[in-house]
Amino acid sequence: MIRKLIKQGSGTYTISLPIKWIRRNEVLDSNYIYVKEKGSNLIISRFKRDTKTITLDINNNDSSWLRTYLASYYRLGYKNLILNFKNTYDLNQIEKILESLMGYEIINSTKKSIEIEDILFLNSHKSQDIIIKMFQTISSLYNLLNEKEKSKSNKNIESKNFKKNILKLRDYALRLIRLENTRFSYEWYTIVVFLEKISGEIYKLNSIEKNINEESIKHLKKSFSDLLILKDIFLKKDSQKIIDFHLKILDKDRKTYIQEISKNINSIVYSSSHRITHFLHAITSRLQIIYLSQDSDNK
Predict the structure, then answer these.
(1) What are the φ and ψ backbone dihedral angles of 71, each rounded to 5 degrees?
(2) pLDDT (tens digit per residue) in 94-117
(3) Which of 142, 144, 299, 165 minimizes the C-alpha distance to 220?
(4) 173/180 Cα distance (integer angstroms)
Protein backbone atom coordinates (compact mmCIF):
# COMPACT_ATOMS: atom_id res chain seq x y z
CA MET A 1 0.00 0.00 0.00
CA ILE A 2 1.04 3.61 -0.52
CA ARG A 3 0.87 6.30 2.18
CA LYS A 4 1.40 10.03 1.83
CA LEU A 5 4.07 11.76 3.91
CA ILE A 6 2.90 14.72 6.00
CA LYS A 7 5.47 17.27 7.11
CA GLN A 8 5.42 18.16 10.80
CA GLY A 9 7.55 21.15 11.79
CA SER A 10 11.03 21.61 10.36
CA GLY A 11 12.47 18.11 10.61
CA THR A 12 9.76 15.48 11.07
CA TYR A 13 7.44 13.60 8.72
CA THR A 14 4.45 11.45 9.69
CA ILE A 15 2.31 8.84 7.96
CA SER A 16 -1.07 7.33 8.90
CA LEU A 17 -1.26 3.64 9.76
CA PRO A 18 -3.95 1.36 8.22
CA ILE A 19 -6.93 0.97 10.56
CA LYS A 20 -7.11 -2.79 9.85
CA TRP A 21 -3.49 -3.18 11.03
CA ILE A 22 -4.29 -1.10 14.14
CA ARG A 23 -7.32 -3.27 14.98
CA ARG A 24 -5.66 -6.58 14.16
CA ASN A 25 -2.68 -5.77 16.40
CA GLU A 26 -4.92 -4.07 18.98
CA VAL A 27 -2.77 -0.94 19.15
CA LEU A 28 -4.34 1.64 21.45
CA ASP A 29 -4.11 5.43 21.50
CA SER A 30 -0.77 6.58 23.01
CA ASN A 31 0.79 3.09 22.57
CA TYR A 32 4.32 2.90 21.18
CA ILE A 33 5.23 1.19 17.93
CA TYR A 34 8.66 -0.17 17.03
CA VAL A 35 10.35 1.28 13.91
CA LYS A 36 13.45 -0.49 12.59
CA GLU A 37 15.59 0.84 9.77
CA LYS A 38 16.81 -1.80 7.31
CA GLY A 39 18.64 -0.39 4.31
CA SER A 40 16.24 1.91 2.48
CA ASN A 41 13.24 0.30 4.27
CA LEU A 42 11.47 1.01 7.54
CA ILE A 43 9.91 -1.96 9.36
CA ILE A 44 7.00 -1.07 11.65
CA SER A 45 5.79 -3.47 14.34
CA ARG A 46 3.78 -3.43 17.55
CA PHE A 47 5.81 -2.52 20.63
CA LYS A 48 4.86 -3.17 24.23
CA ARG A 49 7.08 -1.53 26.81
CA ASP A 50 7.38 -3.36 30.10
CA THR A 51 10.51 -3.32 32.22
CA LYS A 52 9.10 -4.64 35.48
CA THR A 53 11.58 -5.71 38.12
CA ILE A 54 10.73 -7.24 41.50
CA THR A 55 12.82 -8.25 44.52
CA LEU A 56 11.75 -11.47 46.26
CA ASP A 57 12.82 -12.76 49.67
CA ILE A 58 13.20 -16.55 49.51
CA ASN A 59 12.80 -18.49 52.76
CA ASN A 60 12.00 -21.91 51.27
CA ASN A 61 14.49 -23.87 49.16
CA ASP A 62 12.13 -26.72 48.25
CA SER A 63 12.48 -27.22 44.49
CA SER A 64 8.78 -27.76 43.75
CA TRP A 65 7.71 -24.75 45.81
CA LEU A 66 10.41 -22.54 44.32
CA ARG A 67 9.49 -23.49 40.75
CA THR A 68 5.81 -22.67 41.38
CA TYR A 69 6.73 -19.40 43.10
CA LEU A 70 9.06 -18.17 40.31
CA ALA A 71 6.65 -19.33 37.58
CA SER A 72 3.89 -17.16 39.05
CA TYR A 73 6.02 -14.01 38.56
CA TYR A 74 7.17 -15.27 35.17
CA ARG A 75 3.55 -15.53 34.00
CA LEU A 76 2.84 -12.05 35.39
CA GLY A 77 5.38 -10.71 32.88
CA TYR A 78 8.28 -9.63 35.09
CA LYS A 79 11.45 -9.00 33.09
CA ASN A 80 13.86 -9.12 36.05
CA LEU A 81 13.73 -11.04 39.31
CA ILE A 82 16.13 -10.38 42.17
CA LEU A 83 16.13 -13.31 44.59
CA ASN A 84 17.42 -12.73 48.13
CA PHE A 85 17.88 -16.02 49.99
CA LYS A 86 17.72 -16.29 53.77
CA ASN A 87 20.20 -19.16 53.57
CA THR A 88 22.64 -20.29 50.90
CA TYR A 89 21.10 -21.73 47.74
CA ASP A 90 21.81 -24.54 45.28
CA LEU A 91 22.81 -22.92 41.97
CA ASN A 92 22.21 -26.16 40.01
CA GLN A 93 18.69 -26.33 41.42
CA ILE A 94 17.93 -22.75 40.29
CA GLU A 95 19.37 -23.36 36.83
CA LYS A 96 17.24 -26.51 36.44
CA ILE A 97 14.10 -24.57 37.39
CA LEU A 98 14.93 -21.81 34.90
CA GLU A 99 15.23 -24.39 32.10
CA SER A 100 11.43 -24.68 32.32
CA LEU A 101 10.89 -20.89 32.13
CA MET A 102 11.69 -19.90 28.55
CA GLY A 103 13.93 -16.82 28.36
CA TYR A 104 14.90 -16.56 32.04
CA GLU A 105 18.66 -16.65 32.65
CA ILE A 106 20.91 -15.88 35.62
CA ILE A 107 22.89 -12.70 34.88
CA ASN A 108 24.44 -12.09 38.30
CA SER A 109 24.85 -13.96 41.56
CA THR A 110 26.37 -13.53 45.00
CA LYS A 111 26.52 -15.79 48.04
CA LYS A 112 22.86 -15.13 48.98
CA SER A 113 21.43 -13.36 45.97
CA ILE A 114 20.62 -14.12 42.31
CA GLU A 115 19.50 -11.76 39.56
CA ILE A 116 17.42 -13.25 36.73
CA GLU A 117 16.64 -11.54 33.43
CA ASP A 118 14.42 -12.42 30.49
CA ILE A 119 16.90 -12.52 27.60
CA LEU A 120 14.07 -13.04 25.08
CA PHE A 121 12.34 -9.82 26.13
CA LEU A 122 10.84 -7.91 23.17
CA ASN A 123 11.48 -10.82 20.80
CA SER A 124 9.21 -11.56 17.85
CA HIS A 125 7.20 -14.34 19.51
CA LYS A 126 3.44 -13.94 19.88
CA SER A 127 1.23 -15.92 22.24
CA GLN A 128 -0.73 -17.37 19.32
CA ASP A 129 2.50 -18.79 17.84
CA ILE A 130 3.10 -20.62 21.12
CA ILE A 131 -0.50 -21.90 21.17
CA ILE A 132 0.14 -23.51 17.76
CA LYS A 133 3.19 -25.22 19.26
CA MET A 134 0.98 -26.48 22.10
CA PHE A 135 -1.39 -28.05 19.56
CA GLN A 136 1.58 -29.72 17.85
CA THR A 137 3.05 -31.05 21.09
CA ILE A 138 -0.33 -32.45 22.19
CA SER A 139 -0.58 -34.22 18.81
CA SER A 140 2.82 -35.83 19.37
CA LEU A 141 1.80 -36.92 22.86
CA TYR A 142 -1.38 -38.51 21.48
CA ASN A 143 0.52 -40.30 18.69
CA LEU A 144 2.67 -41.90 21.37
CA LEU A 145 -0.40 -43.85 22.51
CA ASN A 146 -0.57 -45.61 19.13
CA GLU A 147 3.10 -46.60 18.89
CA LYS A 148 2.77 -50.26 19.80
CA GLU A 149 6.36 -51.15 18.96
CA LYS A 150 7.72 -49.00 21.79
CA SER A 151 8.17 -50.42 25.26
CA LYS A 152 6.14 -49.01 28.15
CA SER A 153 9.26 -47.62 29.83
CA ASN A 154 10.31 -45.73 26.69
CA LYS A 155 6.79 -44.37 26.29
CA ASN A 156 6.83 -43.15 29.89
CA ILE A 157 10.13 -41.32 29.36
CA GLU A 158 8.89 -39.68 26.16
CA SER A 159 5.52 -38.72 27.62
CA LYS A 160 7.25 -37.08 30.62
CA ASN A 161 9.38 -35.02 28.23
CA PHE A 162 6.26 -33.97 26.32
CA LYS A 163 4.61 -33.00 29.61
CA LYS A 164 7.61 -30.82 30.53
CA ASN A 165 7.48 -29.13 27.13
CA ILE A 166 3.75 -28.47 27.42
CA LEU A 167 4.19 -26.85 30.85
CA LYS A 168 7.04 -24.76 29.47
CA LEU A 169 4.93 -23.63 26.50
CA ARG A 170 1.94 -22.98 28.76
CA ASP A 171 3.89 -20.67 31.06
CA TYR A 172 5.54 -18.89 28.13
CA ALA A 173 2.18 -18.34 26.38
CA LEU A 174 0.60 -17.01 29.59
CA ARG A 175 3.56 -14.66 30.05
CA LEU A 176 3.21 -13.32 26.49
CA ILE A 177 -0.55 -12.88 26.92
CA ARG A 178 0.13 -10.80 30.01
CA LEU A 179 2.70 -8.67 28.19
CA GLU A 180 0.52 -8.24 25.10
CA ASN A 181 -2.32 -7.07 27.36
CA THR A 182 -5.10 -7.07 24.73
CA ARG A 183 -8.85 -6.87 25.35
CA PHE A 184 -9.00 -10.64 24.76
CA SER A 185 -6.35 -11.52 27.36
CA TYR A 186 -8.85 -13.42 29.52
CA GLU A 187 -10.07 -15.50 26.56
CA TRP A 188 -6.52 -16.35 25.39
CA TYR A 189 -5.48 -17.17 28.96
CA THR A 190 -8.42 -19.59 29.30
CA ILE A 191 -7.63 -21.25 25.95
CA VAL A 192 -4.03 -21.92 27.00
CA VAL A 193 -5.06 -23.33 30.39
CA PHE A 194 -7.57 -25.76 28.85
CA LEU A 195 -5.12 -26.89 26.17
CA GLU A 196 -2.73 -27.84 28.96
CA LYS A 197 -5.58 -29.72 30.69
CA ILE A 198 -6.19 -31.71 27.49
CA SER A 199 -2.51 -32.65 27.38
CA GLY A 200 -2.80 -33.76 31.02
CA GLU A 201 -5.57 -36.21 30.12
CA ILE A 202 -3.52 -37.72 27.27
CA TYR A 203 -0.44 -37.90 29.52
CA LYS A 204 -2.49 -39.80 32.10
CA LEU A 205 -3.55 -42.34 29.44
CA ASN A 206 0.09 -42.83 28.43
CA SER A 207 0.82 -43.68 32.07
CA ILE A 208 -1.65 -46.59 32.21
CA GLU A 209 0.34 -49.77 32.81
CA LYS A 210 -1.82 -52.06 30.68
CA ASN A 211 -2.20 -51.59 26.93
CA ILE A 212 -5.43 -49.84 25.94
CA ASN A 213 -7.71 -52.03 23.80
CA GLU A 214 -8.67 -51.13 20.24
CA GLU A 215 -12.25 -50.09 21.01
CA SER A 216 -11.02 -47.68 23.68
CA ILE A 217 -8.46 -46.23 21.26
CA LYS A 218 -11.20 -45.71 18.63
CA HIS A 219 -13.36 -43.95 21.23
CA LEU A 220 -10.51 -41.63 22.20
CA LYS A 221 -9.71 -41.01 18.53
CA LYS A 222 -13.07 -39.29 18.08
CA SER A 223 -12.17 -36.69 20.70
CA PHE A 224 -8.70 -36.27 19.25
CA SER A 225 -10.10 -35.73 15.74
CA ASP A 226 -12.15 -32.87 17.22
CA LEU A 227 -8.91 -31.36 18.53
CA LEU A 228 -7.40 -31.53 15.02
CA ILE A 229 -10.48 -29.81 13.57
CA LEU A 230 -10.12 -27.08 16.20
CA LYS A 231 -6.44 -26.66 15.33
CA ASP A 232 -7.35 -26.18 11.65
CA ILE A 233 -10.02 -23.59 12.53
CA PHE A 234 -7.55 -21.81 14.80
CA LEU A 235 -4.96 -21.57 12.00
CA LYS A 236 -7.54 -20.23 9.53
CA LYS A 237 -9.30 -17.96 12.06
CA ASP A 238 -12.66 -18.89 10.52
CA SER A 239 -15.49 -17.35 12.59
CA GLN A 240 -18.31 -19.27 10.86
CA LYS A 241 -16.57 -22.61 11.31
CA ILE A 242 -15.93 -21.92 14.98
CA ILE A 243 -19.66 -21.21 15.48
CA ASP A 244 -20.65 -24.49 13.79
CA PHE A 245 -17.95 -26.45 15.59
CA HIS A 246 -18.90 -24.93 18.95
CA LEU A 247 -22.50 -26.10 18.50
CA LYS A 248 -21.28 -29.60 17.58
CA ILE A 249 -19.03 -29.81 20.65
CA LEU A 250 -21.76 -28.38 22.89
CA ASP A 251 -24.16 -31.09 21.72
CA LYS A 252 -21.52 -33.78 22.15
CA ASP A 253 -20.65 -32.53 25.64
CA ARG A 254 -24.31 -32.76 26.71
CA LYS A 255 -24.79 -36.25 25.24
CA THR A 256 -21.84 -37.73 27.14
CA TYR A 257 -23.81 -37.31 30.38
CA ILE A 258 -26.62 -39.61 29.19
CA GLN A 259 -24.76 -42.11 27.01
CA GLU A 260 -24.14 -45.59 28.36
CA ILE A 261 -20.53 -46.80 28.48
CA SER A 262 -19.71 -49.78 26.29
CA LYS A 263 -18.36 -52.66 28.39
CA ASN A 264 -15.36 -52.90 26.06
CA ILE A 265 -14.27 -49.28 26.59
CA ASN A 266 -11.76 -48.65 29.34
CA SER A 267 -13.46 -46.50 32.02
CA ILE A 268 -10.39 -44.26 32.38
CA VAL A 269 -10.34 -43.68 28.61
CA TYR A 270 -14.05 -42.87 28.64
CA SER A 271 -13.66 -40.36 31.49
CA SER A 272 -10.66 -38.70 29.85
CA SER A 273 -12.45 -38.52 26.51
CA HIS A 274 -15.42 -36.88 28.23
CA ARG A 275 -13.21 -34.32 29.94
CA ILE A 276 -11.38 -33.56 26.67
CA THR A 277 -14.74 -32.83 25.01
CA HIS A 278 -15.65 -30.55 27.93
CA PHE A 279 -12.34 -28.69 27.63
CA LEU A 280 -12.83 -28.32 23.86
CA HIS A 281 -16.23 -26.78 24.58
CA ALA A 282 -14.57 -24.20 26.86
CA ILE A 283 -11.93 -23.38 24.22
CA THR A 284 -14.41 -23.03 21.34
CA SER A 285 -16.64 -20.69 23.37
CA ARG A 286 -13.65 -18.35 23.95
CA LEU A 287 -12.51 -18.48 20.33
CA GLN A 288 -16.05 -17.66 19.26
CA ILE A 289 -15.95 -14.47 21.33
CA ILE A 290 -12.59 -13.44 19.86
CA TYR A 291 -13.36 -14.15 16.20
CA LEU A 292 -16.85 -12.61 16.20
CA SER A 293 -15.55 -9.45 17.90
CA GLN A 294 -12.70 -9.17 15.40
CA ASP A 295 -15.14 -9.66 12.50
CA SER A 296 -17.28 -6.86 13.90
CA ASP A 297 -14.22 -4.57 14.16
CA ASN A 298 -13.28 -5.19 10.53
CA LYS A 299 -16.71 -4.26 9.15
Answers:
(1) -65, -35
(2) 999 999 999 899 998 888 899 999
(3) 142
(4) 10
Pairing of strands 53-58, 80-85: parallel
Q: Of 165, 50, 74, 176, which Cα lies nearest the Cα of 125?
A: 176
pLDDT of residue 170: 94
Q: Say if residues 105 and 119 touch (Cβ distance below 8 Å).
A: yes
Give Cα 60 distance to the centre of its chain: 28
Q: Which CATH number fits domain 127-298: 3.40.50.1580, 3.40.190.10, 1.20.58.220, 2.20.25.90?
A: 1.20.58.220
CA neighbours within 13 Å on the CB side: how many for 150? 14
pTM of this structure: 0.73
Separation of first and last alpha carbons in the chain? 20
From 76, 132, 131, select the one nearest 104 (Cα to Cα): 76
Give CA angle at 221 (155, 281), nearest 5°. Answer: 110
Residue ranges for the chain with pLDDT beneath 50: none
CA 6, distance to chain mean position in Å, is 41
